[in-house]
Write a structure and sequence with these properties.
Blueprint: E1 6-15, E2 18-28, E3 33-37, H1 44-52, E4 59-64, E5 67-69, H2 74-79, E6 82-85, H3 97-101, H4 116-129, H5 146-159, E7 164-168, H6 176-191, E8 195-199, H7 203-209, E9 212-217, E10 220-226, H8 232-241
Parallel strand pairs: 3-8, 3-9, 6-7, 7-8
Antiparallel strand pairs: 1-2, 1-4, 4-5, 9-10
């Protein structure tokens, strides 16, 4: 059996005596979309911050491709191929797609000047890999639609060899057509072997896109199940009541 792309074992984190995450174990496979669900304060944000290197775990282990790793900074996380696409996207609105793709990691020639041609070619190649087209690579990001902005943020992560994407509310504030396009993009990425943690309050998106669902409440994992094996009502029951529906038996993450 292949090693999981990411595995956490007993991850825990407390802030001032409050247990934000307690004994969380889960896995993410190659090309798998796992949805992380729960109300605000459930522990999702702290969990992904530990994977992103923003917060350091108090206890527990993280494995990448079966090997134990230490994630103590965002640089550690990125070096392991873990990238977070925040809801805000963290794009520079006054720059175009190419400049955003290489922001802080620009390509330069032998004399130290920006190699714009090389950056444009790399941007075209990455968007082609994602089967996406932008109206223009030279258009300012502020002029782009929500779905196009999401594509630029994802392309930036993938260009620097991301193996895992943590996507925080990727369809928030998008219309139906833009939501559909982002969904197609997520499926395309998964088909290429990228592992995706999907954080979303949209239960319809979760059921359309994820292979498995993990529900958290009070910092703990309530349950992890194949999406096809549960109903929306059962998932909502886990989110609201913090317990498994009677017919569901716990399944190891």
């Amino acid at each position: 059996m292949d090693s999981a792309l990411i595995e956490t074992r007993g991850l825990s984190k407390s802030f001032g005596g409050v247990k934000a995450v307690e004994n969380v174990s889960l896995t993410l496979g190659h090309g798998e979309v796992v949805a992380l669900l729960g109300h605000n304060g459930a522990g999702k944000s702290t969990l992904i911050k530990m994977l992103a290197g923003v917060v350091i775990a108090d206890q527990g282990e993280i494995l990448v491709d079966g090997a134990h790793v230490e994630i103590r900074s965002p640089r550690d996380s990125q070096a392991l191929g873990i990238e977070t696409i925040h809801q805000s996207l963290a794009l520079a609105d006054n720059l175009d797609a190419v400049s955003n793709l290489f922001l802080g990691r620009e390509k330069t020639g032998r004399l130290g000047f920006l190699d714009r041609d090389a950056m444009e070619q790399a941007a075209q190649a990455m968007l082609g890999r994602m089967k996406l087209r932008l109206p223009s690579l030279h258009a300012l990001v502020r002029s782009m639609s929500g779905g196009q902005r999401q594509a630029v943020a994802i392309a930036r992560a993938l260009h620097f060899n991301a193996k895992v994407l943590i996507m925080d509310e990727p369809t928030a504030a998008l219309g139906p057509e833009e939501t559909r396009k982002v969904g197609l993009l997520i499926r395309e990425l998964a088909s290429q072997g990228i592992g995706i943690f999907l954080i979303s309050h949209d239960i319809h998106d979760v059921f359309a896109l994820s292979k498995r669902i993990t529900v958290m409440k009070g910092g703990r994992v309530i349950g992890t199940h194949e999406t096809s094996a549960v109903s929306k009502d059962e998932v909502l029951e886990m989110i609201i009541l913090g317990r498994q529906p009677a017919r569901l038996q716990p399944v190891a993450a």
